[in-house]
Specification:
single chain; alpha+beta; 2 domains; 15 helices; 20% strand; globular
Length: 715
């Protein structure tokens, strides 16, 4: 009896001790801080081959092109498995998303048809890994988890009779319960499930509102759908998800999309429940790579990070070093520069001399309630490139040597890319022109807006103009953007993923511009009109995303070749953005050079800016000038201010002639003039990945500064 008692006491003691570790390591009275602490979840390292057997006849692949083709796609797509998409009425599945990308129409939650003007080449459903599939399970009253009290507000949420604009306020309250962690509660201290969570190193199972089997099932369906729709040579899909995280102070967005290179993937996504630290995500990626599964993480919405996406220190506030830089670039070789929630190239406060810096700026933090200003410095791509050169200058490595893509972040399964046919992002919340603020509100919709803003804990926000009262909720800052473009030999996972790896990619705002960019030292010998132009450029130089190593006594030359979207506006100009470290002062600098102008015009030799080509937009019907602009722009450019000792980067920005913005199209279709405080027009554009010029450093003395370099103090 005594033996049994002692055994029980030992067991109880060990159990209490374990709970103490769990309490510290897994959760405390602040679940969102403590549950998301670093815990290496071995459960997320099991690799599964999600291949599916297909009975269809395999179509022959087109012949590979050694000079590479531009393939256009979207790597940021949400369906019903994302908690925020489902809450706002989205019931479209991953299968629906892929059907849409291939050219079929699918329905918006408000009932209208969504269809692309032309199919895409590749697509990735990237539902939030965090609580993937759970909200749908709460709504389904046949599931066991739906019987819990926290699930009852979700019951039958997306029945057909509930899919109305009027339901927005109720849905916003429900959404806030997820966002504010009202439902994200751990088991009580005494519960054996906590012991299971600790010993399996699977933090997700410590949550009472979480069903691990449902979560895995949703992820398996995402993976299955990607493999089912993958059609090598014709249409490419990637297994993927969104790692949705933020800083625990001030809510800076640190979201990444993660895509896998093959049919194999982890048994579940690594999420913020495992850790909110992106560096732990990279460790997980490295460990998967050891198992033969390669992944790429792509930061997005850096504009809403409150200066924290491209900081000059690590997540924990330590100094960046070479190992950190290598680890980040190994796992994050490309960054999403544009999407529906704004463009993250640069900001007028960061680039005051750039006349095109004020483009589709969203100035608030993602998910902040009420919307809160996002600090520019540390949030934008161009400054990150400059910061990377600065860190490299001080011998800390360059963690910001990434390529560029665009994508949409659509939450209705369907990329919204066309300014003239825009359905916004968040389902029922902004699916019509009144709710997104582009046309005046009808009286009954003012009441709906009042309920909606009250649910989001913010005052009623409307603005009055001559035509009436408009919603002023921030949706007017969103855009019909963007696309990821990869130069690849063929339309296959392997070929396109390799393009991502080598950063031979560019981004567009949704237009199908094609742009080539090469750097070298003997490119002026290439005939720009030759059929061998591209192959000669590949053989004599490097392409976007590459390093260009110095050659003593020679100035680098660049070939730029841009072609218009066959369904888009003519091209107006091609620019090269240069950034460099002045070796004399150690300070970063930037400059914009127009290198090719439409209509035979030439850049000013002093300002390096093209004259205005006179392109106009008729705001009454959105027709554009038919006699100005170019179908292609092509040139060889040599940097007139080249200094061989300065480390530099160069990237290309291509601008179309102006066209109507989506908000103007909304107004015209509804019989109104454009809202007075919004841009009436837009210049669609593309951005290439940079080419980095690497000078010979043998004669350059650099003294490492050490410590942490501060961002610019710009609010």
């Amino acid at each position: 009896m005594k033996h049994i008692r002692n055994t029980l006491l030992v067991f109880v003691g060990l159990y209490i001790l374990t709970l103490m570790f769990i309490y510290v390591d897994v959760y405390d009275s602040r679940p969102l801080i403590s549950l998301f602490k670093k815990i290496q979840s071995n459960s997320a390292l099991e690799v599964v081959d999600f291949s599916v057997k297909k009975n269809e006849i395999i179509k022959p692949k087109p012949k590979a092109n050694k000079d590479r083709n531009p393939y256009y796609g979207d790597l940021h797509v949400h369906t019903k498995y994302s908690f925020d998409a489902y809450v706002f009425g989205v019931t479209a599945s991953p299968d629906d998303a892929y059907r849409y990308a291939k050219g079929e129409s699918i329905k918006h939650p408000l009932g209208y048809e969504m269809k692309l003007r032309e199919p895409l080449d590749f697509y990735a459903v990237t539902d939030h890994g965090f609580y993937m599939g759970m909200i749908q399970a709460y709504a389904d009253t046949s599931t066991d988890i739906s019987q819990n009290d926290f699930a009852k507000p979700f019951h039958n949420l997306n029945d057909l009779d509930n899919l109305t604009v009027e339901s927005a306020a109720v849905r916003t309250n429900i959404f806030s319960s997820v966002l504010g962690a009202t439902i994200i509660q751990p088991y009580p201290d005494w519960h054996p499930q906590l012991l299971r969570a600790y010993f399996t190193r699977n933090t997700q199972t410590a949550l009472r509102s979480f069903d691990y089997d449902i979560h895995k099932s949703a992820w398996a369906d995402v993976a299955r759908s990607a493999n089912e729709h993958n059609d090598p040579g014709h249409f490419t899909t990637f297994i993927g998800y969104e790692f949705t995280t933020s800083t625990d102070i001030e809510g800076g967005n640190l979201h990444r999309n993660v895509i896998f290179n093959s049919s194999k993937a982890s048994i579940r996504p690594w999420t913020r429940i495992d850790s909110i630290n992106p560096e732990d995500l990279w460790t997980w990626q490295d460990r998967l790579r050891e198992k033969g599964v390669d992944t790429i993480a792509m930061p997005h919405n850096s504009n809403g990070s409150n200066g924290q996406m491209f900081e000059m220190e690590t997540f924990k506030g330590n100094a960046i070093d070479i190992e950190y830089a290598k680890k980040r670039m190994r796992n994050e070789p490309i960054v999403e520069i544009t999407q529906v929630k704004g463009t993250s190239e640069t900001h007028p406060l960061l680039s005051p001399d750039d006349d095109w810096a004020d483009f589709e700026i969203m100035d608030t933090r993602v998910g902040s309630i009420p919307p809160t200003y996002s600090k520019p410095s540390g949030s934008y791509v161009r400054e990150a490139y400059l910061n990377g050169l600065t860190l490299d200058f001080t011998r800390q490595g360059n963690p910001y040597k990434f390529g560029l893509i665009g994508s949409t972040d659509t939450h209705v399964a369907a990329s919204s890319l066309d300014e003239s046919n825009y359905w916004s992002k968040v389902g029922l919340l902004d699916g019509d022109s009144q709710n997104r603020g582009s046309v005046p509100l009808e009286d009954e919709n003012v009441e709906i807006l009042e309920e909606y803003t009250r649910a989001f804990s913010q005052p009623l926000s409307t603005v009055n103009f001559n035509q009436g009262e408009y919603a002023n909720t921030g949706f007017t800052q969103w855009g019909a953007s963007g696309l990821a473009v990869a130069w690849a030999e063929e339309n296959t996972r392997e070929s396109i993923f390799n393009a991502f790896r080598r950063k031979e990619t560019f981004a567009t705002t949704g237009t199908r511009i094609a742009v080539r960019f090469f750097g070298g030292f003997n490119l002026s010998s290439i005939d720009l009109d030759s059929e061998s132009l591209v192959s000669d450029a590949y053989s004599k130089g490097v392409t976007m995303g590459s390093d260009l190593l110095s050659v003593e006594g020679q100035t680098p030359e660049f070939i730029v070749w841009a072609q218009k979207d066959k369904n888009g506006a003519p091209l107006q100009r091609v620019q090269i953005i240069k950034g460099w470290i002045d070796m004399a002062s150690g300070r970063p600098k930037e400059k914009i050079f127009d290198v090719a102008c439409s209509d035979g015009l030439q850049p000013d030799p002093i300002t390096h800016i093209c004259p205005d080509n006179g392109a106009k937009v008729n705001i009454n019907d959105c027709s554009i000038s038919s006699n100005v602009g170019s179908s292609e722009l092509k040139t060889i450019w040599k940097d007139p201010e080249f200094v061989p000792e300065n480390k530099s980067f160069y990237y290309v920005r291509v601008l179309e002639n102006p066209t109507c913005r989506w908000s103007t199209w909304d107004a015209i279709k509804s019989g109104y003039k454009p809202r007075e405080d919004l841009h009436e027009t837009i210049q669609e554009r593309a951005w290439t990945s940079p080419i980095w010029f690497i000078p010979e450093e043998s004669n350059v003395e650099v003294i490492p500064l050490g410590g942490t370099i501060q961002l610019r103090n710009i609010d």
